[in-house]
Amino acid sequence: MMKKGVISLEEFRKRIERMCATNAFISVPRVEEEFNEWKPPISEGVPINHGITWGTLVLTPEKLEEIKAHRENIIYFAQNTKPSDFYIINNSHGIVTVFPGRTSHAAITSITLNKPCIVGCSNAIINLEQKSVTFKGTEGDVTLKEGELVTMDANSGYIYRGTVPLSNSFIRTHNILDTVRSTDSKTEAAARVEKIIREKIAILEKETGFKKKVITSVPKEDFDNKNVLVRLDLNVPLSKGKITDATRIEAAMPTIRYLLEAGATPILCSHLGEPDKQEKKGKSREEIYSDYSIRPVADYLRERFSDLVFHEKSVASSGVLITRNDIVKDRVNIIENLRFAIGEKENDAVFARGLAGLSDGIFVNDAFGTSHRSHASITGVTRHVAIKLAGLLVEKELKYLGGAVSNPQRPFVGITGGSKISTKLGIIESLLQKIDLLIVGGGIGYTLLKAIGFDVQKSLVEESMLETAKKLMDKYGSKIVLPRDFVTTDHFDFANQKVGNLERNVKTIKEGWESFDLGQESINHAIGILEKSKTILWNGPIGAFEIKEGSEGTLRLAHELARLAGEGKIVIIGGGDSAAAVQTAGVADKMTHVSTGGGASLEFLERLTLPGVSVLDSE
User: Fewer CB atoms inside 10 A, N or C side of the chain?
Assistant: First the structure.
């Protein structure tokens, strides 16, 4: 704002002085040309046990069990803790309390269990009835719902909303103040502050995956006669033991072939399904090993590599059952389902060391779709090898997803849909900082419409997120393109794929009716915007495309995007349901890039890094 002449140098100094009074540091998320989206912390307390972690805000035992079942990080927030909370603390990845005290139960327990802990966050008000935490602030209150993502920096005692890349990305606010005090030139002050920020962003870029070493960036002779452990995502759908969609296997072929041509011995590893959950369903260990064996994948690969070696019984609940001596040189080797081992999801060091021991100290991650998981074969193994590289598929994902966000050709237009705004709040906020326009549909669109007073009747709305949606519209309303007309019904039964009476292209929704797709005017308006864009990122269908009557908007959009990609525009499909939609429309091969990531794509677009990417070697 100072650079553009909106505020004076003196006013800029005053603003930085006010920031210094409340925040010793600011964290710099990746931004575009304008450095106006700094994320100050929402709360500050006393750091007890150090560490930096992020995860889902949990207030209740019920939410803890839900998040624990998904094996995701948990940040437990409480007024105070007591001995009976040991189970909760033990299963959390970070603990925050409003109650102060270095000798409090939370403090002592966190030190005992070696968990990051912050106490004394006095500006926080917990409302268990509403399942929310409100953080009081001089520039307005911030309310977080249970289930939202938070970042805690227990090194400095700060809590952040959302996921903030903290490592090496802090700027001391007094450094900025000293910089602007050192000159009377507005232009010079702006240039010096930008220099500080650009230096931090350069560090962050190096960490977050855009400059990772790829298998093609090291000399081929480094692979010659070497065992290379290759983590792939071969989690393909099966029916009666037969593969019904081999897309993920085909996507891995370029990396496998490159390593073979370089003289390496690839040792392929992947998970397949969720065998670890089957014992609870009454299946015996023998049945699980049979039903979830990776043999069908090995048989498919043997059609391409006739001398492939499948190491049956190489992985069991106890860990890796083979050694480097069992690997057959100069042939493709594949080991059993990684999730047969208890240590895989637990990121067990012994299991990770066993996997690494099969190689000659070289690891390649080409499993972008699982790189958002801190599992033994994704992050743990990297502690036990000398060389950690990205495969060709991961390189492609980073190029398109990362490039779209960090350096897009403009105008840059996003499209997002899906049922819940809460699951995509992070990516929506992240994108709105970088894109020119965001077209919304689905339950997200209905929630935003209701937040500004439009009567959506029975349409899918996240009532708990209306306040957040209103704040989004207040801040970014000029960038958000809302639906203009609707496809409505008086009865919507998603489970049985049935709808009642229909009305299409209506501007208002009848009492007791609901919308489940966008009308022609909304689609035409969106296409008009997309025609003028240069980069398009689509994540989330704009209607209930799984039902015939609700598929028209999503499928038409898919065909229009394919046409625009053919005309030279960059069209990126962000994985998950969007990828399924373009597959259903038969136009996936016409897009510039269709991500294989699903949940990993969402997390990458929000955080601009993933656990499995950040641990790889940087250029």
Answer: C
